[in-house]
Structures are given as C-alpha cells and as structure tokens.
Amino acid sequence: MNDQKTQTEIIQRSHQRCEAFGVDKSRVFSARILKGEALNERLAENEYLLDIAAPFMDILYEAVANSGFFILLTDNEGCILRSKGDPDTIVLSEKLNMVIGAFMDEKSIGTNAMGTALYENKPLQVTAKEHYICAYHRWTCSAAPIHNSRGETIGTLNLTGASELLHPHTLGLVVAAVRAIENQLKAEEAQIKLNETYHYLKSVIESVSSGIITIDLEGNIKTINRWACSLLKVEKQELMNQSIGRLLPYWKDIYQQFRRGESFLDTETILPGPGNNKDRYDLSAYPIYGHDEKIIGMVLVVKGMQKIFNLVNKYTGMRAHYTFEDIIGESPELRQIIDHAKKISNTPSTVLLMGESGTGKELLAQSIHNASSRRREVFIAVNCGALPKNLIESELFGHEEGAFTGSKKGGHAGKFELANGGTIFLDEIGEMPLHMQVNLLRVLQEGYVTRIGGTKNVPVNVRVIAATKKNLIEEVRKGTFREDLFYRLSVIPLFIPPLRERSQDVKTLFNYFLNVKAQKLDKPIPRISDSLYDQIFEYDWPGNVRELENFVENLVNFNGISSFNIISTNRSNGFQNYSNGPDETRTADSGIKEFEPGGLSPNLSLEDLEKKAIRDCMDKHKGNMSRVSRQLGISRSTLYSKMKKYKLEVN
C-alpha cells in the first residue's frame, strides 16, 4: 500500500483530472455503459482474460464471502467484465449501475480505485471521500492493474466494500490475486508458445523428405514421421513408445559414440522390414541435449539408398548432356544410324555400339538415353578399359564392409546400383576381363547385383548401352569374349562408320568446329587456303571426329597454318608413321607425280588415260580408296563418281 504522502498526491492528481474532465460530483451512474451487441463484442475481445481470471476471483471470494465485499474485473479501459460477491452487496452495486459493461475510468465516474489504478499503473486503495463523486463515499475500493507477459496493462482486479470495512490487508489480497493471475497468464502464454513450437516442429518433421525418429535414453521411440513409416513399411502406432531395438539393435553403441565426442553420419545400414526382408538405408544420428548439456535422447535420420544415389548422381554430373540434335553430319550413312537409334531409344533393350575410336559412340549413347523415358534419370559412363582389373568388380557391383583389405566402412554401392532407374554406358566392353563377363551376364539376365562379400540380391532397373572398337566376333573366336554375353549385349547392334567412309561429313564437321573453336579460344575464324582445304577433305582421318576436332583447334590457334602432326595408320603393313597430315607444304598433285604409268599410247583419249590411271592406281594400292584418292589428287566422292562412270570395281 502507498504511504500517506504518496496516497494524498495520487488522490489530488486524480481529482484535478476529474475537474478537467468535467465530471459532476453529483453523478451517480457511469457516463458510459455498454449494452447489447457492443457489450457482447467487448466480452468476446476479453474472453482470454475472463477465462484466466475467473478461477482466481472465485478463490478470492471464498476468502471474503459474507463480509460485505464484492469483486470486479475490468479490461484495460476500465469496462467491467465480471462481478462476484454477496447477493445483497451486488444489489447495492447494481443500484449504482456498477454492472457488467459500465466503465470505471476517471473520465466516466471520477476518482475510484479501478480507474485511478489504470491511470497510475499501480495498486491503489481509495476510500470514502477520496472518491470524486459523492455517491461512492460509502465505499472502500482496492484495485491493482493486471499485466501480460510483455508488461502491457490488460485490466484491473478490484475489491469493494463498505467504507467502514477499510483494512490495509484488503489491497494485499487483491495484489496477491493479481500476481496469481499474471503468473497464470505467463504460464498459459508459455503453453501456447510451446504448442505453437510443437506444431511448427511437427510440421517441419513431417515435411522433411527423410525418415525422422526420436528416442529417449532407454531407446523408446517418442516421435516418428510419415516418411519413416513409409520407408520402413510400418504403421506409426506399431512403433510409438516401443523400443528401437527391433529396428536398430546397436542403438546403445551410437550413444557411446556420442559420449566419446564422435559423430554418426551417413552410414549405410541394413534395417529389418516386413517379414524377413532387410533393406539398405542411409542412417545419421544426432544427440539431443537437456538444459544441463547432458544427452537426453537421439534423433535418427533415415534415407532410402536410391535417394542418396540420386543426390550423388545429381551433384557429380552423372547426367547425359547430348541429344541427337548435337550430332553433326549430313551423310546418308550417319543419318541412317541416327534414324535407327531414335527408333530404339525408348525400349529397355541392350544396345551395342561398334565403331573406331573417335567416331562418337558415347555421344550417340547419351542421345539414346535423352530420347528415352529415362531422360530424367542418371546416365553413368564406365570405361571398362580404364578400370584396374582387380577393382572393376567392386566398381560395377559394389562391396560390403570388410569384403577385402581397403574396403570402405559401411560398404560401397557399385555403378549398377547408382544407375538404378537410368542408363549405364559400358565403354570399351571388349576390355572387360573374362571372369567379370560372367557377373555382367548374370546382371543382364537376372536384373540384380550382389555386392562383393554380400549375399543379398539388390534389384536394379538399368538400361545397358555397351560400346567397343574391337571386333567382338573375332574376340569370341579367340576365346577372350564370351559368346553368350556377346549375344546378350548385341540385341540392338549399331555400327558407326568411320569418318573416311562418310567424307561428306568432313566439310560439315570442319566448318562446325572452326566456328566452335574460334568462339572457345576467342579468336577470329582463320582464312583457310584452297590447297589446305583440298588436303583436309582428302585426308583419311584415322582418328575420326576426335582427330578432326583437335586439328581444327590447332588450326585456329595458329591462325589457319597448321603445326599439328597427325598420326595416320598404314593399314597395309600395320605400323604407324608420323606425317604432317593436311599441310600446305604438300601440293594437290604431288601424289600424281609419284605415279608413272608406262606404255601409254599417244593415241589414247583423255578419258582413256584417266580410266587407266585410276585402274593402275587401284591395283597398286590394292583397293585402298583413301590412298588412291590421295595419290590421284581428287576427293573420294570424285573418285567414286569416276569409278561409276568408267564401270571400275575394286578387285
């Protein structure tokens, strides 16, 4: 309670305000009383305060029952929301219109404990003539403001009785009741926040596309989201408050790791499913700490292995980038291959691509994948010739933990598992060791892989495209390639002709690479001399498109003058010699000077001479059209045209 001096000062200030407001001392009723819909709206707005305060008003009334006191609850503007008291006392207050809906602020009814406590924002007792209006001189009122958790005034609690009942403890009772109300408000608000937090966390847990399970120190499951139930193929009610031991027998070991300061992240784990099924999952675990920094539980994050594979593939670039539109060339031979490839793109059948190095086998494989229904899935390329023979089985089919020295902890998924749902491109399939071919054949026939050191069959849905530069039929004859695997791989065989057999594409590719390389190197497109053009289009290009591409890049770098040595293969004697390839130091007719046909009659016509020159040159080079065209100084297409004209055939 305020000391006398403070009390006097508070009452004086209040009376001064009342005079300023123009409050009539002879007033009996409040100047403002809500009724009907307006009252209902006011009560609805303060429903929360009413619900919290009502029990404490009842408790306070039990302490003052039959003593002539009544209790009033107001909102932050002084509007009475609830009254409680002895019946005869309530009747007296109602005669003064101290009813629900009446405003007890100073402006409406002058100085009183409720209105002045609101204005001063402190507990206050007003007795007898301290009231501004005469009608209230019979009362003693004790009121205290009610604050929410943010310190905002939301109402008052008041205890009123006859003035002769004045006692300091009356205000103490009111203050105690208000403190209880404020504590309950804080508790309710805290509970609301806890509920909100719970719903936030529940929404987050349910929205995460991974299985989330929480357990306590005894291993009892406290939370499990829908994803976990779906992954593990269980019902939520089956697991709630049950031991995690049936799913994760070594859960106690994880706790021990936490206590040693170790983590448990992204570990491949086998968890039991319905029946006797045991599936692989990626498991991570995180400790839950209490207020004293001691571990009180654990969060388990479970992910399906396929999801992990997809994520790994996404960020390691295991995607096909090329389509049929990226294949450059207009020759009938190439267009026919592309047409065939388009027709078989959407089938699951195995494809065998055959062709020399540099012809674009992987480019065609990626195009087939991107034209199929698997285009959104992974494309994994494996060079069977580049993998060490002792590791190829692990790379393709994976291994279990401890399968061999150096094997990864938790095991390792092979390329077939990573490619599940997509396409695997087995380049240089002819280099695969014979003992590995048996395992590959089993995968192709059965549709599952078995990791090294494991016994579980892992189903895989993979489209296989194989490629080779070798003659696999010859390899079968030599016994280095299994005949049954050859037939299983060559369900759809596609042969990509070398560049020398589709000379029409040389010009198209040359011009294409000229533009691409100039842009890449930020150089102008160089001027190419006519003689170099002729040599480029007459050259064999034994390295095919790859060789041509590298030659053009060299050409752009040196502004149209090639310094590039091209490796050409002498197919007649089986060795490689180095020449300057297409180079301006050679003339277009240099080859003809080397050929000196003897015994030519001066009476022969020019056409007869040309026919004989072609025939003799063909005999000399044993039908090697590339050498014939080069020696005669004409393109292959021109050579074939003249052979058709003179009805010449290769012997």
Keywords:
single chain, 651 residues, alpha+beta, Beta-Lactamase, Rossmann fold, 5 domains, five-stranded antiparallel sheet, 42% helix, 18% strand, elongated
What this model shows, in words?
The protein is of the alpha+beta class and 651 residues long. The protein has 5 domains: 4-190, Beta-Lactamase; 208-307, 2-Layer Sandwich (Beta-Lactamase); 317-497, Rossmann fold; 500-579, Helicase, Ruva Protein, domain 3, CATH 1.10.8.60; 590-645, Orthogonal Bundle (Arc Repressor Mutant, subunit A), CATH 1.10.10. Helix content is 42%, strand content 18%. A 5-stranded antiparallel β-sheet has the order 2-1-5-4-3, with helices on both faces. Strand 4 and strand 5 form a beta hairpin. The longest helix is centred in the first third of the chain and has 40 residues, at 168-207. The radius of gyration is 47 Å and the shape is elongated. It starts with a helix and ends in a 6-residue tail after the last helix. 32% of the residues are buried. The model is unreliable at 565-581 and 583-602 (pLDDT under 50).
Give the rounded overall mean pLDDT.
Answer: 84
Q: Rough shape?
A: elongated
Structural class: alpha+beta
Q: What is the number of independent domains?
A: 5
Fill in the CATH topology of the largest domain: Beta-Lactamase
> At the first level of CATH, what is the class of the largest domain?
Alpha Beta
Instruction: Give the terminus-to-terminus CA distance.
Output: 127 Å
Enumerate how many helices there are, as a single number.
25
Strand order across the largest sheet: 2-1-5-4-3
CATH superfamily of the largest domain: GAF domain
Query: What percentage of the residues does DSSP assign to strands (E)?
Result: 15-25%
Q: From the alpha-carbon coordinates, what is the Rg to the nearest angstrom?
A: 47 Å
Q: In terms of per-residue confidence, which ranges show pLDDT below 50 for 5 or more consecutive residues?
A: 565-581, 583-602
